[in-house]
Amino acid sequence: MSVFRKDRRAHGATAAIGVASPWADGGNLGSLVLSDVYGADIASRLPMSRGEALSIPAVSRARHLICSSIAQLPLIALSTTGQLATQPSWLYRSDSDVSPYARLLSTVDDLIFFGVSLWAVKRGADGYPLDAVWIPADQWTITDGNILVNDEPVDEREVILFDVPGYTGLLNVASRTLRGAIAIENAWISRVRNPVPLSVIKSTGQVQLEQDEIDTLLRTYNAARRSDDGSTAYMPPELELEDHGTADPELFISGRNSIRTDIASHLNIPTILLDGSPAEASLNYVTQDGTRSRFYVETIPFWLDPIVQRLSMDDCVPRGQRVRADFSEPLAQIPTPTGAPTED
Question: Which residues in the chain belong to E strands, given as ranges?
Fold first, then answer.
């Protein structure tokens, strides 16, 4: 089976996967199905979808920073004497309608969320790539050591597999952190929608309400306290309102900042780049250049090296050659206004 196809529908856009899959970007539908089948407790321990994870601001921010910073870097082939005069064309262009930038960005995105990514590759008579396209994560799998694309096994020469050794993806290793982040976000939203303390409406014993009357009363009261004049309520003599206190707002602030720190740790990115609280930034003062240096020394290599090292293997470039990313522009003291010159 040949997996190399040029159309965007095959490799440029993510197709839908079954709603019961926790890896599909189907919103909350997959989680709802899993909860119905396995119970809320088991479903809560399964990996969430990429779409759910991206709804967490810190995850979205970290993903955008890492992916865009790497995707803009030109890939170049080198030998022992330096940069090759004639570069392999597949490093800087594609015959498909998906740009090399999008191909590299999608590859890094896969590594972040799943720990693995796959390209379909078209080879020339000499066995080296002529073109390569990214395959969406929901269109392939590894079963019993074999790579299957659209449920069909493929020859290993038709694909290039990337992986981060020892890392199984954010959706797996940070499952509890991600669910905790969503729980804190939901609690914060609920607190904003209901700024008054937890209340209990009790009957004084003069009258007993039927269940439908109780439901109507609670709906009316909850709607009223979310209005602009919701700080004041009237209780008839037969009812009594009790205040059971409220959560400290600082709990939500510190909780949300802690989530940023945890996600930054999982993704190997400086916390300050995820825009933590001003108080945290002042306590951990660093220069802009220092943070930028840490990002390019500590963060970028973790995600980029698995890609360039794989592309440096003998099935991608001849022995004695290697593929690296060109950092001359982002690390320059005065970057070129129009960016690094690249072919297309």
Answer: 75-79, 82-83, 116-123, 129-135, 140-143, 146-149, 152-153, 159-163, 199-203, 239-243, 322-325
CB-based contact 269:67 (threshold 8 Å): no
Please state the rounded mean pLDDT for residues 44-49: 72
Fold of the domain spanning 1-18+49-195+247-344? Cytidine Deaminase; domain 2 (3.40.140)
| pLDDT of residue 39 exceeding 60 | no
Whether CATH 3.30.1120.70 fits 197-245: yes
Tell me, what's the pLDDT at 163?
96
**φ, ψ dihedrals at 242, nearest 5°:** -115, 140
Average pLDDT over residues 263-290: 70
The Cα-based distances of 189 to 185, 195, 243 in angstroms read 6, 10, 20
Cα(first)–Cα(last) distance of the chain, in Å? 29
Does the predicted model carry a pTM greater than 0.70?
yes
List the beta bridge partners of residue 159: 120
CB neighbours of 154 closer than 8 A, spacing ≥ 6?
1, 3, 147, 148
Instruction: Give the residue extent of every domain in the chain.
Output: 1-18+49-195+247-344, 197-245
Distance, in Å, from the CA atom of 320 to the CA atom of 336, rounded to the nearest integer, reads 31
CA pair distance 96, 76, nearest whole angstrom: 20
Contact (Cβ atoms closer than 8 angstroms) between residue 111 and residue 303: yes
1-18+49-195+247-344 and 197-245 have identical folds? no
Query: b/e per residue, 196-209, with b = 16+ CB within 10 A?
Result: eeebeeeeeeeeee
pLDDT of residue 186 exceeding 90 = no
More confident residue, 17 or 289: 289
Q: Name the band, by pLDDT with cuts 50, 70 and 90, for residue 204.
A: confident
The values of phi and psi at residue 7, to 5°, are -80, 150
